[in-house]
Prior knowledge:
Mean pLDDT: 95
Amino acid sequence: MFSMREIYLDHAATTKLKKEVLNTMLPFLTEQYGNPSTIYTLGREAKKAIDKSREQVAKALNAKPNEIFFTGSGTESDNWAIKGIAYANKEKGKHIITSNIEHHAIIHTCKFLQKEGFDITYVPVDNEGIINLEELKMAIRPDTILISVMLANNEIGTIQPIKEISKIAKEHRIYLHTDAVQAVGSIPVDVEDLGVDLLSLSGHKIYGPKGVGVLYIKSGTKISPFIHGGGQERGKRAGTENVANIVGIGKAIELATKDIPEYSAHLQQLRDMAIEGILKQIPHTRLNGHPEKRLPGNVNISFEYIEGESILLMLDSKGISASSGSACTSGSLDPSHVLLAIGLPHEIAHGSLRLTFGEENTKEDVKYLLETLPPIIEGLRKMSPLYNQS
């Protein structure tokens, strides 16, 4: 009986939970179910497991264990970073700077703060998605308290010059936050080297569980608690800890950062093979994002004259899972704010495809993609009145 190939090319949306990670988590869902706030043996075992995970995350990021705080997601980490700094430092000022291609977890949080009386400056990026450093410098004011710029974009994969931004922030004594959800596990992420005060990451992007994230908060950073209640996370994030998920993210980040150069090279080889093949075989296409300063596993290409959603449905019928942008906005009819920010017109932004590779993908997967995608695009264009007029 014929069996269709199943190829997963949406690792930026989520990753499969690794068996080693699951096996580490399972005891804390069954036998070792204690509340880490209790003092008897079951509770102490849970607390010890959390402490170990904190050390694993700290080691992976070159941070101190007391600078690592566990959250419920990357989105929560972003919210806490922005709101926590804003509320704790509003006497100094109410001005925050970010870019216009941030994840919605940042942009929507900033828009919320605008309603609360804060002033937000959205610095533009160039046509490859790199933030304009001169405009960033010009945006700084005496009342600026925070700069938040993502390390790598979730849609187009562009990597931002965070080290340079850190120098600018330090010169003006402004806190710097970076959303590193897409970067951790794909490229080296060292908080000391980057020079950031806060950094967000998520478990399910690095072959860990969903429903757990991390916020790195550099020692001495003035930040308000995000959830009020008990004294968990040293009084900064109340609520009984999700021990199994915390154990899972600790193991996941340990595995994800063990051999980044080799993993990154594997992803880059597949990425470049896919980009070269698509651009060569299919006319009226363009690569979105920086050609070199991009995540090793990210491919984002726009196809003129057709809708991205149609491409996804056709690819799915051939066993290929992909995305037309961020997983958080895939149900939206609006074109990607990221693609619009890099200068794409609405009609071309609508025809985008995001392919993100992972550790189980192979050259055979890319070959199958390159056999499957061109006829799909050709077939869809034949039905497009725009293409017929061109």
